[in-house]
Amino acid sequence: MATESIRISHAEALDLLRDAESNVHSFDAHAASGSHEARFTSFGSPRSVEAQDAATSRSCNNTQRPIQCDVFIAGSGPIGCTYAREILEKCDPSFLRPRNAVYMAEIGAQESPIVGAHLKNAVKYQKDIDSFVHVIQGALQPVSVPLSDTHQSTLGGNSWTPPLNSKQNQLVICGQNPQQARGTNLGATAVTRAVGGMATHWTCACPTPHSEETNESPVDRNELDSLLVRARELVKVDSTVFDESIRHTIVKDILTDSFPNRNVRSIPLAVQRHAKSSSGFVTWSGSNTVLGETVNDPRFTLASEHRVTQLIVHPSFPGAVAGVLMRDLKTNSDYLVNARVYIIACGAVCTPQILYNSDIRPPSLGRYLTEQSMAFCQIVLSKKYIKSIENTTNPIWQNLIKQHRAKHPLDPLPIPFRDLDPQIMIPYSGAFPWHAQIHRDAFSYGDVGPRSDPRVVVDLRFFGKGDINSENRVDFSNTEPNKRPEHTDLYGMPQATFHVVRSDADRDRDQKMMNDMTTVANSLGGYLPGSEPQFMEPGLAMHITGTTRIGNDRNTSVANACSKVWGFSNLWVGGNNVIPDSTASNPTLTSMAYALKGAADVIQCLQC
Ligand SMILES: Cc1cc2nc3c(=O)[nH]c(=O)nc-3n(C[C@H](O)[C@H](O)[C@H](O)COP(=O)(O)OP(=O)(O)OC[C@H]3O[C@@H](n4cnc5c(N)ncnc54)[C@H](O)[C@@H]3O)c2cc1C
Asked: With 90 as the cut, is the pLDDT of residue 16 above it?
């Protein structure tokens, strides 16, 4: 069942705001006493479900009283967490209240004891990476599913079926989208609704964007480069963690020899060696890494399973957001939050969705959407490379292989079970304008199956850019301002519909990329049966950009270079959606860089 959508009218908003206005910018003793902390799950001090439920029911009598905070952040992914940490660390504390200074609302639940952590850190998945595929599949909720063909020719005679020759001859199952055309869909696009967002299961690749991938940026490249440095620190990027791995070294050497001019290198990954490096495990960075010690800051509050429904634009000052309407999904109670500053960082689809549902609809909202094409295959390494491991002259490897053989005399492979996976990339270049990952990792596809040893399998994922076109867009179920949407998604928000077509130039580039991938694959080995070269379902890259792009021209962008929404004094947006460029490289690091610039702007506003 969808959670029923709520939109409030101008008149209702006025009522709610009457209360709020008397409190704006004043310190709220109620919040300071900690009662809001009791109501909401707080980072760092998890409470039992019963305690939360009891606290929630106590506070429900108080729904009309707005929650007061300085900064309201929607979304707990890496971008929301970048804003939260940067503001709490860098803003002069005398401008912030001692409780609820930063209030974050997240529609998803907390899924691990460490709030927002990468789920792949569990030993289970480090021992068996393929079992993580199901975690990713379970986490991703598709955005736009066209109606299914419902005809079942073998259905028993008495069973119910939609009436033929009627307007009701299709199933309108909740979550399906009657307005979605299959040919223009990004069918694999999905949202992860969880504390930590997609960073609970991302691949952690953090390459630096090529200059051609930042052409459209309103931020000077030198400034962007220094923001990227800080972003790398926050998410703990390291390119050396896999360097001691036998397979990593072998694959890197093969590629470097075969493609000497392609700048083959280790993927810069958001990952650290496990404290006990001999365990062979690593710690993948998640939103918790980005948040760091902010998690324990008493000025920080997280409300999980709270849907941000609608921003309320001040009726007398259209350039100011006066409040945000939020629903506790566990109790279906609605709350008004009043802040000095609002940051919406809910991913590339849900960020414009919230703006749209708030009747904030600048002409570029949802437009200039780009998504990367993906070519994928898996290979089984050639025998000669396995032999070269067997005959290695490297004494460290010889020793590791000897130890492995002593423990596992029947294993036909000279590769220790704990040898880390290969993590290599061929970066974007002018001559080869795509990003290539030659590695082994879990996605929502590509598990190896029982007939091959995963230690000899290598995945090739090539990401292609798409031309920027204002007609490529996501729009939301048609509503006139102040009216309920005609169709809603599973969470009661206006249903997203994609209108995305790849240009002829995109298709040409995609074909060249596929050709390149097969050349690279053939240098390594033969195709794993079932994983031959293929283009993947559009949207699978999960790297949509542009839907609330930044820019210098308010006619072709939604926000300025600091990610502040045009025409608003207290509203910022964050996420890949702010990237104005066509990219092939993984975008999260760049989005974090833009969020750092946005956070500096927010701090300036708070300190005014
Ligand atoms: C399998 C996989 C692998 C990936 N690998 C990489 C990689 O290697 N490198 C890379 O750069 N990127 C990668 N990505 C993409 C990366 O995860 C995203 O770019 C990144 O998480 C975006 O961060 P974000 O905070 O903007 O959005 P998200 O991580 O999507 O977080 C947004 C949050 O907002 C919440 N939300 C949505 N709507 C509402 C609402 N109405 N109210 C309240 N909360 C709401 C969501 O629940 C979510 O938690 C990968 C993605 C996937 C799925």
From this structure: no
- The encoded tokens of residue 68 equal 């007061």
Do the Cβ atoms of 234 and 290 come closer than 8 Å? yes
Q: Is the dihedral of CA 465, 470, 471, 472 positive or negative?
A: positive
Using a 6 Å CB cutoff, which residues line ligand 1? 74-80, 105-108, 136, 192-194, 197-199, 201-205, 307-308, 345-347, 350, 354, 443, 493, 542, 575-576, 586-588, 591
Query: Cβ contacts of residue 153 below 8 Å, gap of 6+?
Result: none
Cα–Cα nearest to 591, from 578, 603, 602, 580: 578
Please give the Cα distance from 79 to 67 (Å, whole number): 23
Residue 573 alpha carbon to ligand 1 centre in Å? 14
- Report the residue among 132, 304, 346 best suited for mutation to probe ligand 1: largest number of ligand atoms under 8 A from its CB: 346
Pick from 85, 135, 198 the residue to mutate for probing ligand 1's pocket: most ligand atoms within 8 Å of its CB.
198
Mean pLDDT of the chain: 89
Which amino acid, residue 377?
C
pLDDT at 508: 98
Q: Cβ(487)–Cβ(495) under 8 Å?
A: yes
- What tens digit of pLDDT does each residue of 325-383 get? 999 999 999 999 999 999 999 999 999 999 999 999 999 999 999 999 999 999 999 99
The string of DSSP codes covering 381-400 is E-HHHHHHHHT---HHHHHH
State the average pLDDT over residues 231-238. Answer: 98
Residue with the smallest CA separation from ligand 1 atom 25 is 77
Contact between 79 and 288 (Cβ < 8 Å): no
CA of 301 to the centre of ligand 1 (A): 20
Output DSSP code: residue 559.
Answer: B
* Triad 28, 31, 33: Cα angle to 5°: 110
**Ligand 1 centre from 84 Cα, in Å?**
16
Q: Does the annotation mark 151 as catalytic?
A: no
- Atom 14 of ligand 1, nearest CA residue: 202
Which one is catalytic: 118, 543, 560, 576? Answer: 543
Among candidate residues 538, 522, 443, the one with its CA nearest the CA of residue 185? 538
User: Three-class SS of residue 510?
Assistant: helix
Strand locations in 64-170, DSSP E? 67-68, 71-74, 102-105, 140-142, 145-146
Q: How many angstroms is it from 180 CA to the middle of ligand 1?
A: 23
On the CB side of 394, CA atoms within 13 Å amount to 13
Contact in structure between 74 and 346 (CB atoms under 8 Å): yes
Q: 106: closest CA among 68, 134, 72? A: 72
Best CA proximity match to 354, nearest among 363, 344, 362: 344
Query: Ligand 1 centroid vs 190 CA: distance in angstroms?
Result: 9
Task: Give me ligand 1 centre to Cα 77, in Å.
Answer: 6
Give the pLDDT score at 142: 96
- Helix ranges (DSSP H) in 441-542: 504-524
Q: Which atom of ligand 1 is nearest to the CA of 587?
A: 11
Tell me, yes or no, if 586 is annotated catalytic: yes
Distance CA 189, CA 506 (A): 19
Task: Output the 3-class SS for 293-335.
Answer: HHHHCCCEEEECCEEEEEEEECCCCCCCEEEEEEEECCCCEEE
